Amino acid sequence: MTIHLNQYPALVLNADFTPKSVFPLSTLNWQDAAKGVFLGKYVRVVDYEASLMTRTQEYVFPSVLAMKDYVQVKNRGVPFNRHNIWIRDEGKCAYCQARLKLNEFTFDHVKAQVHGGSTEWENIVCACQPCNGKKGSKTLRQVEKDHNMTLRVTPHVPTVYEIAAKARRLGGFGPTPQEWIDFLYWESELER
User: Fold this and answer.
1) Which of 29, 101, 124, 167 has the fewest CB atoms within 10 Å, measured from its CB?
2) Boundaries of every domain in the chain
3) With 70 as the cut, is the pLDDT of residue 111 above it?
4) Per residue in 159-188, pLDDT tens?
């Protein structure tokens, strides 16, 4: 039986059972997880139902690990980049709500740079090329009057939990192992 390095990833929790990092998600491959457990750095919380048989024993793959010692995590926030803007705006044009691929969208400065608008979370939205071309350097009031276009999102600084939840919905992450669900998305809204 061949077991690939990334086949049984382990979610790494801090000692308080919150994810050590959400974006990017703190994980280890099964070999690093086994080594960390052996060295006493981690405590097993939940295991996969899969195991590896050696000549002398059975090794069950850990799915969720907790650090023995709490590590202070710096709140670095979500990096301001093209991919994260696309995720925050759920891959849609902020004006016409057309679905956009990551390589198709353009940045729109809600307050145009010629009017003093800056390139930051609170002033950038995803836009399709036709909407961005119509808006140009116009104000929101002008573009609504001239082209009947309305900004349908509020540009904001997203939390790491918002980005993680939206990336998951957009298929930005692979499938989440069932064993991890209880430990992730603490601050995201529950589905009804």
Assistant:
1) 101
2) 10-75+173-183, 82-147
3) yes
4) 887 887 888 788 765 667 888 877 875 544
Are 36 and 13 in contact, with CB atoms under 8 Å apart? no
Rounded distance between C-alpha atoms, residue 58 and residue 51, angstroms: 7
User: What distances in angstroms separate CA 60 from CA 2, 12, 49, 153, one per listed residue?
Assistant: 15, 16, 7, 46
For the segment(s) 82-147, the CATH number from 1.10.275.10, 1.10.30.50, 3.30.70.360, 3.30.70.100 is 1.10.30.50
Q: How far apart are the first and last CA of the chain?
A: 41
Nearest of 12, 46, 14 to residue 32 by alpha carbon: 12
